[in-house]
Write a sequence for this structure.
């Protein structure tokens, strides 16, 4: 249960083995490839050069984008399985060789072209449908026009005008036409914004008409169809129907392309993997015949690496050199946490804060028991705990939850146990008081608050002792006492004082507590003074360090939130039960059932959210702040995509 011991790895091989070696490293998924340009000496670098793989990488990126686009387009038409079916379906597991053989034996470019053709065809149909819909809107307005506008062109004595005018201008147009002695007009249609008219007048009055319509923005009809509006509308609707049928047939065809979708998914995996290997080549140093690659690997995976390389390339094909991590590399070495199956899910709490540096300790197992207690005290309900246990058990046992989702489910499943335990301890079952309990969240609030503070003090003391141990290992003896052991002993002295004066009323115990605290107050000043070259400055720093006692008071008070949130959750649940209990019997066993389920579900969600957030906060601020700095970076190995499949990992 610690940070994995790392080794710096250097590999040298012939150029012809470069692709095979990188492929083996990628399949192992445990080695972070790093650049050697800033590490090797200049006389060695003169014989090597960094590979230029920009163009190759660009090609793979371009092809990968085409695959992603085609896959995204196909997936929008292929129906997704239901949630239950999706959860039960296991992701396919392939070796790197099986994946590459499948993709190489599949015409991926042909599939992309096939998808692109269908996309273009459907896009053309969509554009044509929009055009027809616009035509339909136009024809529906003019369907009452029973003759073709071209039929009235070129009359000798009369001019015929067909057009529209805005609603607000229509009265003025009608008034103007009434003043023309030979004008005849007829309304064709009315809309919310315009009115259409058929206007017939003698040719000698054309000038007057033009003057009138220019002022009123009369818009002449431009009719582009050969058929009458009614007939053109009928033809338009038939064309739309044909397009809808063609579109439906194309979408139905794409809907059956599950095999195409799978091939594109595997192609995405393959091209991503190849692209990552090409990027790794950019970190490799090359000569005419040899190349050198470097990286980080966990010490306990070295034997596995040697076995894989010997299997894939043969013995003595690769020179493998390893170096221990140097002190100046502590900030650069990637971090891998090693914990047992019980504690491992809680690594996500540490990762959300920060990974430790290589010379620190993994705080996960240290905060694990405290997180259980805090979460359990805030949740503190047997019924809620049972639901959490049952839900996560079903998900883990009967559904195919994988990766980070599975880790989170395990995390919640473990937390169900302290929730049930504290539910029994406080005698709460969905807000109903059980006949047996140790303490009550309604009647023993002060006692629960005292317990919260005691647990907090214990965690603070533990964190301070860890600070002392870590700094002592790092050779910072003065700091280990001043920042760690001394404050831990002062808190222990304070605890002894409280026991002696308030709990047991034993003067001797009280004096021991005061004495222990004062000795370490003096110790902080003395050690700070002695360890500083400038004694006056050291003395001042010692006094200033004692000012930190105000921060510890705030830290201790912070732990009272365990009591406050636990009491709030329990009392809210009890209040919901009372509300439903006041309903008349008829409503209580009908609407009341639905209401109590909804209310309890809401309180359950809020309780667990509060438990998660505030338990994490107490670790990050009050506990980690005493001994843990963080700032480590995770191991980022050369690995495969694993978006659609799982890879059979070599080991």
């Amino acid at each position: 249960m610690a940070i994995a011991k790392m080794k710096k790895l250097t590999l040298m091989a012939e150029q012809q083995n470069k692709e095979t070696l990188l492929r083996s490293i990628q399949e192992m998924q445990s080695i972070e490839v790093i650049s050697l340009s800033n590490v090797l000496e200049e006389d060695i670098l003169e014989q090597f050069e960094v590979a230029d793989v920009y163009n190759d990488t660009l090609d793979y990126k371009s092809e990968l984008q085409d695959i992603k686009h085609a896959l995204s387009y196909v997936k929008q038409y292929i129906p997704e399985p239901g949630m239950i079916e999706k959860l039960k379906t296991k992701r396919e597991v392939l070796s790197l060789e099986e994946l590459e053989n499948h993709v190489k034996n599949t015409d991926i470019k042909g599939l992309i072209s096939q998808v692109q053709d269908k996309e273009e065809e459907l896009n053309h149909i969509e554009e044509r449908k929009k055009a027809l819909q616009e035509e339909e809107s136009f024809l529906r307005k003019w369907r009452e026009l029973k003759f073709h506008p071209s039929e009235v062109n070129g009359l000798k004595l009369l001019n015929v005008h067909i057009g529209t005018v805005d609603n607000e201008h229509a009265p003025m147009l009608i008034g103007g036409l009434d003043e023309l002695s030979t004008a005849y007009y007829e309304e064709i249609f009315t809309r919310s914004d315009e009115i259409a008219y058929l206007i017939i007048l003698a040719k000698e009055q054309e000038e007057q008409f033009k003057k009138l319509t220019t002022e009123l923005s009369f818009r002449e009809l431009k009719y582009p169809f050969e058929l009458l509006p009614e007939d053109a509308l009928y033809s338009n609707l038939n064309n739309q129907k044909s397009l809808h049928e063609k579109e439906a047939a194309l979408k139905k065809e794409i809907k059956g392309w599950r095999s195409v979708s799978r091939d594109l998914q595997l192609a995405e995996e393959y091209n991503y993997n190849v692209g990552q290997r090409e990027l790794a080549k950019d970190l490799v140093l090359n000569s005419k015949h040899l190349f050198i690659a470097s990286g980080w690997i966990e010490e306990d995976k070295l034997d596995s690496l040697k076995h894989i390389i010997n299997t894939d390339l043969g013995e003595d094909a690769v020179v493998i050199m390893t170096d221990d991590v140097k002190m100046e590399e502590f900030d650069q070495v990637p971090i891998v946490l090693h914990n047992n199956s019980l504690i491992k899910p809680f690594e996500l709490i540490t990762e959300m804060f920060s990974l430790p540096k290589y010379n620190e300790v993994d705080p996960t197992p240290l905060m694990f028991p405290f997180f259980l207690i805090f979460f359990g005290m805030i949740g503190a309900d047997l019924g809620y705990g049972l639901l959490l246990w049952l839900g996560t058990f079903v998900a883990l046992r009967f559904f195919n939850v994988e990766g980070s989702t599975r880790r989170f489910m395990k995390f919640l499943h473990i937390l169900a146990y302290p929730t049930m335990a504290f539910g029994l301890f406080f005698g709460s079952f969905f807000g109903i008081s059980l006949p047996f309990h140790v303490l009550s969240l309604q009647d023993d609030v002060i006692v629960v608050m005292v317990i919260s503070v005691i647990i907090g003090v214990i965690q603070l003391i533990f964190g301070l002792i860890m600070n002392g141990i870590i700094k002592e290992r790092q050779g910072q003896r003065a700091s280990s006492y001043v920042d760690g052991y001394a404050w831990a002993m002062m808190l222990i002295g304070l605890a002894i004082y409280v026991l002696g004066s308030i709990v047991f009323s034993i003067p001797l115990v009280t004096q021991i507590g005061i004495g222990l605290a004062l000795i370490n107050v003096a110790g902080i000043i003395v050690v700070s003074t002695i360890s500083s070259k400038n004694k006056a400055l050291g003395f001042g720093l010692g006094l200033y360090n004692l000012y930190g006692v105000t921060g510890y008071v705030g830290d201790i008070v912070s732990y009272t939130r365990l009591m406050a949130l636990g009491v709030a959750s329990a009392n809210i649940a009890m209040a919901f039960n009372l509300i439903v209990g006041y309903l008349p019997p008829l409503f209580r066993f009908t609407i009341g059932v639905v209401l109590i389920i909804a209310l309890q579900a809401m309180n359950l969600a809020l309780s667990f959210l509060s438990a998660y957030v505030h338990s994490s906060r107490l670790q990050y601020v009050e506990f980690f702040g005493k001994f843990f700095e963080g700032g480590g970076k995770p191991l980022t190995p050369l690995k495969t995509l694993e978006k659609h499949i799982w890879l059979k990992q070599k080991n």
Notes: The two ends are 21 Å apart (CA to CA). The chain has a mean pLDDT of 89. The first helix runs from residue 18 to 28.
